[in-house]
Amino acid sequence: MNTIQKKALSVGKYVNSEHVDSIIRTYKKEKWLHNSKRLGKPDSLSVWYSVEELECFIANSKKNGADGIKLSFAAYPENHAPLPEYEGLQTIVLVATKKKKSANGISDKNIYVTKNGSTEILAYNAGKLCPPYCAADFTEIGVTLIDKGEDGLAVI
Q1: Which of 141, 151, 150, 144 is nearest to 32 (CA)?
Q2: Any idea where the domains of the chain sit in the sequence?
Q3: Which of 20, 36, 114, 137 is the most buried (most CB within 10 A)?
Q4: Can you say whether residue 20 is alpha, beta or left, with left for phi > 0 and alpha for psi between -120 and 50 degrees?
Q5: Portion of the chain with pLDDT greater than 70, in percent
Q6: Cα–Cα distances in Å, from 148 out to 29, 30, 131?
Q7: Among 82, 79, 100, residue whose Cα is nearest residue 91
Q8: What is the average pLDDT score of the chain?
Q9: ∠ CA 86-90-92 to the nearest 5 degrees?
Q10: In the predicted model, is pLDDT for residue 49 greater than 60?
């Protein structure tokens, strides 16, 4: 019996706690603090999805020809958030993609599917944002002391 093995393209890698703490701390200092001040409330620090819903989205993406998932940073506009408390907060949207070769090289194109007679992007969003919905221990990873200048100090 002959077996054909597909080689997956890996662009990411497993990282350690030091790496995670470092990049979260950098994000908090360089992006989160400014976003929160502009919004007048704490911006989200993370988005949570269950393993089951991610597996379902991946399976549906593969069924529709996807060979990748693009995670895009986004923010909920006013009156278009799944919950009112999410308005203005950043989120992540997952979009199914497929590699396409062209004269300009290889690119990852969004996948569209027919749904209820119209064409829609194959995407997933509306995870649980932290804040405002955080587990009690969300500050254990990447705890950071931030100097807010005249506004004092913050521990996040």
Answers
A1: 144
A2: 17-155
A3: 36
A4: alpha
A5: 81
A6: 10, 12, 19
A7: 82
A8: 86
A9: 105
A10: yes
Q: What is the 3-state secondary structure of the chain?
A: CCCCCCCCCCCCCCCCHHHHHHHHHHHHHHHHHHHHHHHCCCCCCEEECCHHHHHHHHHHHHHCCCCEEEEEEEECCCCCCCCHHHCCCEEEEEEEEEEEEECCEEEEEECEEEECCEEEECEECCCEEECCCCCCCHHHCCCCEEECHHHCEEEC
CA dist., res. 8 & res. 40, Å (int) = 43
Bridge partners of 115?
118
Q: For the segment 85-125, what is each residue's pLDDT rounded down to a tens digit?
A: 999 999 999 999 999 988 888 889 999 999 889 999 999 99
Tell the residue number behind the tokens 């030091």, with chain if given.
Answer: 18
Contact 115, 128 (CB under 8 A): no
- The span from the CA of 37 to the CA of 27, in Å, is 14
Say which amino acid occupies 125: N
Written as six digits, the tokens of 109 are 């194109």
